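User: Um, any thoughts?
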Amino acid sequence: MWFIASLIKKRNDVADVAWGLGFVLMTWASYVLSDDSGVRGILVGILVSVWGLRLSWHIHTRNKGKAEDYRYLAWRKEWGQWFYIRTYFQVYLLQGLFLFLIVLPVLLINKSAGVQLGILDFVGIVVWLVGFYFEAVGDAQLARFIKNPENKGKLMQSGLWAYTRHPNYFGEVTQWLGIWLVALSVPSGVLAIISPITITFLILKVSGIPMLEKKMAEHSDFADYKRRVSVLIPLLSKK
């Protein structure tokens, strides 16, 4: 469906909007189809919905009225006549596979009979809240920075961005780590460690940080920023 939408709108960054919505859909579909996932199922459903809906809305408003995201524009040139075929398999189908791996803790939770919440659930919620703070606040700080005409041509280095070069990505990884901790309370939940591992790998090695830092490197002060500030985990800036 989203691939067809990309053909109609002639822009493939609709896949980024669909990313968060896909998690929300799979989460509640698995909950409805489950026998009795109880309070824990509702809990993770709310967490995933808050994350997914906020992210999709943020990306939609960020892209509205602008040209297609630079990553997809680069692929249009790089892939040439194979662009649409590669997009279908390499963006949409592959994204579906990654979505399944990342949402696995939620599927296991909804597959299990609801039991009383325990300490791991509360630890997971706290970890998720930390991640949500970094992602939501980091996105908001960057949006305000970009909107300020005085910052044109400058590199964001303040707020949470003074402690990690990618606070929003750190937040996304941390939120899925928190949901995995909640899943440890259900049978086979430990196997869902593939979820935070997958999202961390994608962000660190594939379509997250590597592509964004190539763009950030266009700024003359990026080398100094890179030397001083941690790539992902928030740390005090080096002098």
The longest helix spans residues 119-147. The chain has eleven helices and no strands. The mean pLDDT is 86.
